[in-house]
Known about the structure:
The complex is a heterodimer.
Chain A: E1 5-7, E2 10-13, E3 19-24, E4 31-37, E5 43-50, E6 53-56, E7 65-68, E8 75-79, E9 88-95, E10 105-106, E11 110-114
Parallel strand pairs in A: 2-11
Antiparallel strand pairs in A: 1-3, 3-8, 4-5, 4-9, 5-6, 7-8, 9-10, 9-11
Chain B: E1 4-7, E2 10-14, E3 19-25, E4 32-38, E5 45-51, E6 56-59, E7 62-67, E8 72-77, E9 86-93, E10 99-101, E11 105-110
Parallel strand pairs in B: 2-11
Antiparallel strand pairs in B: 1-3, 3-8, 4-5, 4-9, 6-7, 7-8, 9-10, 9-11
Amino acid sequence: NAGVMQNPRHLVRRRGQEARLRCSPMKGHSHVYWYRQLPEEGLKFMVYLQKENIIDESGMPKERFSAEFPKEGPSILRIQQVVRGDSAAYFCASSPGQGAYGEQFFGPGTRLTVL
Amino acid sequence: GENVEQHPSTLSVQEGDSAVIKCTYSDSASNYFPWYKQELGKRPQLIIDIRSNVGEKKDQRIAVTLNKTAKHFSLHITETQPEDSAVYFCAARYGNNRLAFGKGNQVVVIP
């Protein structure tokens, strides 16, 4: 049973370009979460999605950031017109459900560097 | 607000000694508190968690205690080994299953 998969593992973009980060949850998990980690900081919640639905996007910046989890395929975190402050590690987590089934398991992360 | 504080920021222990990390949280409605271990450049790994209907949980050398009245919980690692060296994050679950994380503790086990 493969764990949470993320790709690419490393992504370099120039200012103004777009970044697309992909996340495939663990088998049997239908809940996906995105977190951002700045150097020497904890993880900050960004967005929580289920298939075809955004459940909670209270941690998403108001502009340039969007996320989706389509019926088929991985979840995508999209950052438009990247700036240097977007440089961070972006982690995806998945869980089989909420409440008693809400344990979140993390992927290896995508390290985004904006030049 | 959703605030989780961790102390101390860095902890050095001699191999074989115990390590204790404490966290406090702000929202009394939180009912689930996981701990994650993150080695350099790796993913956070869930090592133990506790729910608000219990006060203590143990898994081999790792234990977590919860004091809901005081809104704090602690991670205890006994008989520390070099492979325990890592950054440890506590978290508290808030609405919609989202986790609020502390800033992490660097634990260094000295052989």
